[in-house]
Amino acid sequence: MVDVLFLCTGNICRSAYAERRARQLFPGSAIASAGTHAMRGWGVDENLAEVLIERGGTADGFSARQLTEPIARESRLILCATREHRAFVLDAWPDLADRTFVMRAYAQDLGTAPRSPLWSALPPADGRPALTRRDDIADPYRLGSPEAVRTADEIDEVLRAVEQARG
Length: 167
What we know:
Blueprint: E1 4-8, H1 14-25, E2 31-35, H2 46-54, H3 69-73, E3 78-80, H4 83-92, E4 100-102, H5 103-112, H6 145-166
């Protein structure tokens, strides 16, 4: 079983950075990533790899992979970069709704929930407003270093929320 699976489109930017950064911050946790339309076999995007290295992580040995049913089902929690990625999972496997979330919304819900174990999935918050584009982490692919830094900062905010929820 994988504790958390990060999901984006190509599995070379957002989910790749999130996987490697989470592995750095939460050693001992089973962390993985995949893409809905993966650039199979590619490494971490150059700009995000630079940010990752600057923050003490490593992109060495990373290889993008496609999301498959076995990968999704073996994951206790699936954290998606956008609403579209979550919809992709739920269209294919609707029974995974209780463990598939948009990263930023998940982090916000963690901030209002009682302390919980690392990566424990939360049920959707009652009365939570519908997700909007502001809940998504934009794709920095081919947009240069400033966008890569912005994306990395947003993902690090999610990971800090998880760390705080751990207690």
